[in-house]
Design goal:
Number of strands: 11
Bound molecules: guanine
Radius of gyration: 20 Å
Distance between the termini: 66 Å
Order of helices and strands: EHEHEHEHHHEHEHEEEEHEH
CATH superfamily of the largest domain: NAD(P)-binding Rossmann-like Domain
Shape: globular
CATH architecture of the largest domain: 3-Layer(aba) Sandwich
CATH class of the largest domain: Alpha Beta
Oligomer: single chain
Strand order of the largest sheet: 1-11-8-7-5-6
């Protein structure tokens, strides 16, 4: 059997098209185009590439972007001041502070300072709690949100399926597990101290891998017919040739066993930015609905 390849590029293009239509509808209704503020601290080359892509794609769907480039020595207090100003700025729909942050800045303080209504990364504890409790109105972290869309492109209904998430990070693994649980999968999380990873993987109908360990998941770990989502992306130097991007799953082996699988690159990566755009639109739509409700309240009073 050869697995079906889940084409993240074309699914992401569909999400961007929907977002562009949503933006146009907001603007036609008299609301300003959503604006995404992106804050980058320091000069990590990979972060520069990600941020440039985020800004470019934001503008391509008709939203505005504002980019703040801060030097690596920026104090935590200065960063928090900037975020608080963006929280108060009615023109800003979403705020994203690119990670990783320099070690002198407390990441938890940063994510807690971003207003939950503008938290397009979904990292603020209020949004984390809303997702954990299955509440409406949460902004959901972009990568897990994208992964759910990839999974749903090959499954009409995942209720009752066994799902294993390999990796327990706050950015991917934990929110991923909560979303799968919300869809009534039977969910486990594996992490660095998990024993017998191979056996646990082989029990999973849906396997989501986000460890950053290239090739960790071999073909014989995979249940026949399973859906495999590879979130890992590691740049490997390949001698004189161009660098190669590789995932956490040994793709050439896995494709012989899985039912459906995401490639690296071209799987999860494109969906992550598309879902950031979708979150920025959602934040703007929810803000527009709150403003409208407040107007009605005033009129009724
Ligand atoms: N750095 C790597 N992934 C992410 C992400 O999803 N959000 C932010 N803010 N920074 C990142």
């Amino acid at each position: 059997m050869t697995a079906r390849i889940i084409d993240g590029k074309s699914l992401a293009a569909g999400v961007r098209k929907d977002v562009a239509e949503g933006v146009a509808a907001l603007v036609a209704g008299g609301v300003a185009a959503p604006e995404l503020a992106v804050v980058l601290i320091g000069d990590d080359p990979a972060s520069h590439v990600y941020v440039a892509n985020k800004v470019k794609q934001t503008e391509a769907v008709g939203m505005r972007s504002r980019r703040f480039q801060l030097d690596a020595g920026t104090t935590e207090a200065a960063l928090l001041d900037l975020i608080e100003g963006l929280n108060r700025d009615a023109a800003v729909s979403g705020i994203l502070v690119q990670f990783p942050l320099p070690p002198h800045i407390d990441t938890a303080r940063v994510v807690t300072t971003i207003h939950p209504d503008k938290d397009v990364d979904g990292f603020n504890p209020l949004n984390v709690g809303r997702i954990a409790a299955g509440m409406q109105g949460a902004l959901v972290p972009c990568t897990p949100l994208g992964v759910m869309r990839l999974i749903k492109s090959v499954h009409d209904d995942i209720a009752g399926l066994g799902a294993l998430v390999v990796g327990a990070s706050n950015v991917v693994g934990r929110p991923m597990a909560r979303l799968l649980l919300q869809e009534l999968c039977t969910v486990s999380i594996a992490h660095v101290r998990t024993t017998d990873l191979e056996r646990r993987c082989r029990e999973a109908d849906i396997l989501v891998v986000a460890t950053g360990v290239p090739g960790l998941i071999r073909g014989h770990f995979i249940k026949r017919g399973a859906t495999v989502i590879d979130v890992g992306i590691t740049r490997i130097k390949s001698g004189a040739g161009a660098d190669k991007l590789v995932g956490d799953v040994a793709f050439d082996e896995a494709i012989e066993v899985a039912g459906a699988i995401t490639p690296v690159p071209g799987g999860v990566g494109p969906m992550t930015i598309a879902c950031l755009l979708a979150n920025t639109l959602s934040a703007a739509q929810m803000e527009a609905a709150r403003s409208k409700a407040a107007e009605v309240d005033v009129t009724a009073a």
